[in-house]
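Question thread 4412

I'm putting together a teaching handout and wanted feedback from people who do this every day. The idea is simple: show students a protein as raw sequence, then show them the structure tokens that encode its fold, then repeat with a second protein so they can compare. Below is the first pair exactly as I plan to print it.
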Amino acid sequence: MSFDTLKSKIPDFAKDVRLNLSSLVQDETLSEQQKYGLILACGIATRNAEVAAACEAEAKAKLSPVALDAARAAASIMAMNNVYYRFVHLASNKEYGTLPAKLRMNVIGNPGVDKVDFELWSLAVSAINGCGMCIDAHEKVLKDAGLPTASVQTAVRFAAIIQSAAVALEAAALAAAA
């Protein structure tokens, strides 16, 4: 499914979502790799097959095979880390934070693409998954690398828009089934 097909499936009650989706590919503040990696990683993170497929199709035309795999890896590794570190952060028993995670996450150290791009994708996925501890960690790496605050905000905006597309499709499916 193409991005245009996805936009056409967004119902009228969510026309703002449709318009916001159109703005993603128009963004000129991020590099092409950052932008399309965000689209793919966030699409996967929504856990909505239609959104993920449309984001995959959009990114495939713009990213190298290595960058495609890195964006997929960001979504995958953050799915694991966000659950674990959100638990560590939210648990009343702070002893969990002193224990080794014992989770393999080598891809973070060697993602195959520019580390800033991978961190940006990881931040956006962490925003979708709601892990404050991971958001803070990735945002710090990005700020330490000199990425402007506006670029960090843009990545989270991408996450918000792509997640809202998944929710709009789910709402339309529920309405149709009712």
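The second pair follows. I'd like the answer to focus on this one:
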Amino acid sequence: MPCDNIRDGLRPLGLVSNCWKVQLDSGNSLDSLVAEAVRLKLTAIELRQGSLGVYEAGSTCRPQADRLADLARRFPSVKFNVALSLPCLGSALTREDSMFLAGRSAAIALANRERPHLRLVDLQTRPEQCVTSSIETAARGLVELTEAMLEVEGILSIEHSWQPWPWFDSVMNAARRMLGERSARLRLCFDPCNLLLTEPSDDIASIVESIAPGDVSMIHVKQRRDGQVQSQVGDGDLDWPKLLKTLRQREHVAPMLFEIAPHVDVWANLENGIARLFGAAKV
């Protein structure tokens, strides 16, 4: 059933396209999957590199901007962004990187009269590297990439992954200071489940409490149990009802995007997760 009557505060709801990996690998078109998401009133869709179907090419899964522009035209009500895995917190990535530029072009193609929105996640910079990495150098790298998005009136979002939260947060804050009045164009893709990669579970609630709503572009929703991301957002390592209560009290309004593990029953799992988190709780 459509989900338009169960969102009472945090909105809109949506998903990340890697939820559809099973369906895409089985031959379902991205167009048909987006259409079903729209039918369910899931109107914020992040197109994740590796799960774009015919809209990416080659072994590197390079987004195809020309094709993506057609997709955006077919779904004018959807708020799209594109997500890439790039070492954005290291020193090697620059604004001239060909994959970054392909992502920026894809974000422009998907904008649908919104600001182009590119999200990056760094899966290569690990905790041991952060110990010896310069916060200022990493921050300057983010500033350079943000300035490249500013040139197209866009937004850059960075998702934390294997980086210890205190280090990552310091880098983001330093980059915002460098950007000054332009700092709103550098946002946080906040994934509470990713915090479990580096932080003690007892610290999660206080970190969620510390996040400034204005710094957040989107919130990823998934659950982990025994070290594995689950195909449903049920019981697990995160107390999602408690986290949602905190996010509501902090007046977060960023889109909440489900990023559950791929599964043949992805639609039922999405609807069950939405009903569990937003149907009973008045958030």
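Top answer:
Good format. For the second protein you could add a caption like this: Residues 13-279 form a domain with the TIM Barrel fold (CATH 3.20.20.150). The chain has one domain: 13-279.
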